[in-house]
Amino acid sequence: MIDAGYVPHHRRIEQVLRERITTLRPGDRLPSDAELVAEFGVSRMTARNAMQRLAEQGLVARHPGRGTFVAAPAAHRRTDRLMTFSSEMARRGRVPSSRLLARAIRPSTRGEAVALALAPGEPVVEVRRIRLADNQPIALESAILVASCAPSVLTADLEHGSLHAAITAAGQTLRSGTGTVGAGAATAEDARLLDIRRGDPLLIERRVIVDDDGRRIESTESRYAADRYALDVSFEVESPAEADR
């Protein structure tokens, strides 16, 4: 049985470094793999994995022969990386917080069951929050989680803390996911909670996140006020020869 309070070593190092990065400036040097080994008493591979995950998320820049440094913040989140809202806002120099609207265990709807590969009616954990930066509402977030997340998520401080940290504390390892981003119009509820007008444009992101074994852990819809949030996109241009195939 997995200890609900257990956090893998590379995750623990990653969390500590995330906190340090919020106090540093772009270009500041971070510990080398050898220094992390000495500080945390882990293998070089574990230290490297922790730093590599931060590099994949755009938080650090690794330069062979020179070291690892705090990366300059991107203007917006990249579509191929999922950064926690708190980390994203902190990188922009804004103070993140949340307002908890709902948190409960309940039977899954048919759509939620399909998204998480569950039997209809199987218990899930629902978490609804308003995500804020400098006390300005940015997004209305509705997360549906598998029931095994309940012990940690139901007791965690989700107004000042991270939902993903609570999921990790429940013994789940979030690894990758898929999602869609589309446009929509603000409903009366969106308008009231985000302090916008009904019908104002929204950026709507829906995603499903899986663990190391491909099991679906989280299904989330985030409804962003379109004038307060954006996503950066990188792409390759298809050649005319490829287009004609």
Structure description:
By secondary structure, this protein is an alpha+beta fold. It has two domains: 9-70, Orthogonal Bundle (Arc Repressor Mutant, subunit A), CATH 1.10.10.10; 77-232, Chorismate lyase, CATH 3.40.1410. It has nine helices and eleven strands. It has helices at residues 9-21, 33-40, 44-56, 85-91, 110-116, 150-153, 163-169, 188-194, 240-243, and strands at 29-30, 60-63, 67-70, 77-78, 96-107, 123-133, 136-146, 176-185, 201-210, 216-225, 231-232. The strands form three sheets. It has a six-stranded antiparallel sheet with strand order 5-6-7-10-9-8. A three-stranded antiparallel sheet has the order 1-3-2, covered by helices on one side. A hairpin with a 2-residue loop joins strand 6 and strand 7 (136-146). It is globular and about 55 Å long. The relative contact order is 0.12. The mean pLDDT is 87.
Question: What topology emerges from the helices and strands here?
Answer:
Blueprint (H helix, E strand, L loop, with lengths): L8 H13 L7 E2 L2 H8 L3 H13 L3 E4 L3 E4 L6 E2 L6 H7 L4 E12 L2 H7 L6 E11 L2 E11 L3 H4 L9 H7 L6 E10 L2 H7 L6 E10 L5 E10 L5 E2 L7 H4 L2
Parallel strand pairs: 4-11
Antiparallel strand pairs: 1-3, 2-3, 5-6, 6-7, 7-10, 8-9, 9-10
